[in-house]
Amino acid sequence: MFAAIHGLRPRRARSESRQPLRLLLGGIMMLVHIGQWEIAQRVHNAASCTSKTASTPTHLQGSLSKEKVGTQFSRAVVARLGQRPKS
């Protein structure tokens, strides 16, 4: 129910592990569903700040393993917990 959605492009499913933001957004939806709005907002804000700073540029993702991409992104999100995205 809270999985990343690939839409009409199933071949993208194979590269999902290189796009950890999609997976994190599923987790945020789950937090909202179970009533953990404050935590969901904090994680969403941190993820937004991280994606805007492009901590793992798209051109590097092809050369990194899926574990390294996910680890870099995760660490960047955790480092930004408590921050709010600038408008």
Q: If you had to describe this structure to a student in words, what would you say it looks like?
A:
The chain has 87 residues and is mainly alpha-helical. It has one domain (10-79). Helix content is 56%, strand content 0%. The chain has 4 helices and no strands. It has helices at 20-33, 37-53, 58-61, 66-79. Helix 1 packs antiparallel against helix 2 (37-53). The longest helix has 17 residues, at 37-53. The model has no long low-confidence stretch (mean pLDDT 75).
Q: What portion of residues is helical?
A: 55-70%
Uncertain parts: none
Form type: globular
Compute the number of helices.
Answer: 4
Structural class: mainly alpha
Roughly how many Å is the radius of gyration? 13 Å
- Distance from N terminus to C terminus (CA atoms, Å) equals 30 Å
- Number of domain units: 1
Tell me the number of strands: 0
Instruction: Give the ordered list of helices and strands.
Output: HHHH
Largest sheet: none
The mean pLDDT is: 75
What percent strand?
Answer: under 5%
Primary descriptors:
87 residues, mainly alpha, 56% helix
Could you provide a short overview of the structure?
The chain is mainly alpha-helical and 87 residues long. Helix content is 56%, strand content 0%. It has helices spanning 20-33, 37-53, 58-61, 66-79.
How would you summarize the topology of this molecule?
Layout: H1 20-33, H2 37-53, H3 58-61, H4 66-79
Helix pairs in contact: 1-2, 2-4
